Amino acid sequence: MAAMMAASAVPFFFAYGRDSRRPVATAAVVLIYVAVWALIGFTLDYMMGMMMMPSSLLIAAAAVAMAVVYALTPWGRWARDRCREMAQREPRRPRFRHAVVDGASYTASCIACSAGIMLALAVVGMSNPFVIVAAAAVTLLYKITPWPVPALSRRR
What does pTM read for this prediction? Predict the structure, then answer.
C-alpha cells in the first residue's frame, strides 16, 4: 500500500525537495507519508483477513462505481485539488518541525483524495499485483489530471 501510494506522491516529493532545498525536511515528509500508508495497508490487510468477501464481478463493479461517485463528490474533488495544489506550491516553512506539518497535511489530503480508490482496492483484492499496479496508475492519473471534467468541477 505504501509503495503503491508513494508512486502517486512523487510529484509532491520532488516539488517539496526542489523548493525546500532541505534534504532532512524532505526525508521527513516522505517518511511520514510512507509510514501512514503502511499503517493503513497493514490495517486493511488485517481487516480483510478477518472477514470473507464474496468474490463477485458485481461486487467489484459496485466498489469501482462507488469510487467514481466518491471522486465526483465535493469532498473528493476538494481533496484532489488540495493534493494538486500542495504539489505545485512552495513549502511555506523552512524548519524541520514545519516539514512534519506539511507532510502530515499532504498525507491527510491524499487519504481523503484516495478513499474511494482504496475502498475499491480492498474489495477487488489487495493481494493481486495487477490490481495494485492498476490502482497505483489510476491514483496517479487521478491526482495529476483535471478529471473529473473541469466543467463539473466548476459547478458548486
Answer: 0.71
